[in-house]
Amino acid sequence: QHRVLMDGEFPHELKPVFRAYEVQGNPWGLPSDTRGDWAAGLDVPVVSDAAGLAGADYLFYVGSAQSFDPRAQKVARAFVSILRAAGVRFAILGAREPSTGESVRRLGNEMLFAELADKLVATFAEFGVRRVVTCDPHAYNALRNEYAERGADWDVVHHTQLIAQLLAEGRVTLRPGAARVAFHDPCYLGRHNGEYDAPRAVLTRVTREPLVEFPLNGRKSMCCGAGGGRMWMEETLGTRVNRLRCEQAREVAPDVVATACPYCSLMLDDGFKSLGVEDGIAVRDVAELVAESLADR
């Protein structure tokens, strides 16, 4: 923080990232008023006031990755189909959704994080947010653990936790396939928040085959390479982390590597491409696998 805020010393590639957050509230730097465009044609409820959200079971906090990255948007759309199949009442904030500022805090820009966090708290208070579900473990961790100091008054669940609950309650019925699936634990879901069971419980309902585990899994799982704000920085030393993780996947030869984080999906996709095996091992979010297996699909 001292280097970034007092000395102005940080990697050059972060300057446009910080600027993008300042101007548009997202690291992609895309217009903030297009934040809900990913849901076009899905008839997703976009609320404009607290009264509109009052009838919803959850606010679906989409996050920047699933709002702006085409690959991650597919996960958001898949999750919507699951919520619909289960009869869950939900809504999004669309263009009014603020950023958690998680990445800028990890990168040492605490002042910018404070500005983004204050905006989020004010927006959530305006809409009377009480229950939040998100597909992004980074947002999950921030909203669950880092906003209490700013008066957070909401419950947060990760989408794998909610899907596991819906399956246990019989609100969603699946047709399991025969794919050999390995699960990559996202850092901010697993090691930072201790959730290892929910995604695995879901995946055992998606496939008839036993789940495959990475050599390093659970509490000892490796990062995909995007954590700590590294998503926005180049790796110049040694083997790229995402490539190394994908090499570990090849050791257990799955058909599919499943994960539960938009950044993990992006990094693992890129890692397999760098190895030239993207056609042999697919990368899917848990929500995508569930949506593809819906019995009434």
Write the layout of secondary structure elements.
Elements: H1 2-6, H2 15-24, H3 50-54, E1 58-61, H4 63-68, H5 70-86, E2 90-91, H6 102-106, H7 110-127, E3 131-134, H8 137-146, E4 155-158, H9 159-168, E5 181-183, H10 197-206, E6 212-213, H11 241-252, E7 256-259, H12 262-275, E8 282-285, H13 286-293
Helix pairs in contact: 5-13, 9-10, 10-13, 11-12
Provide the gyration radius in Å: 19 Å
Side-by-side strand order of the widest sheet? 2-1-3-4
Task: Return residue spans where pLDDT drops below 50 for at least 5 consecutive residues.
Answer: none
Give the mean pLDDT.
93
Note the main sheet.
4 strands, parallel
Distance between the termini: 49 Å
| Count of strand segments | 8
Topology pattern, helix = H, strand = E: HHHEHHEHHEHEHEHEHEHEH
Approximate strand percentage: 5-15%
| Helix share, percent | 40-55%
Q: Structural class, from helix and strand content?
A: alpha/beta
What is the helix tally? 13
Tell me about this structure.
With 297 residues, the protein is α/β, with parallel strands linked by helices. The chain has 13 helices and eight strands. A four-stranded parallel beta sheet has the order 2-1-3-4. A four-stranded parallel beta sheet has the order 6-5-7-8, sandwiched between helices. Helix 9 (159-168) packs across helix 10, helix 10 packs parallel to helix 13 and helix 11 crosses helix 12 (262-275). It is globular, with a radius of gyration of 19 Å.
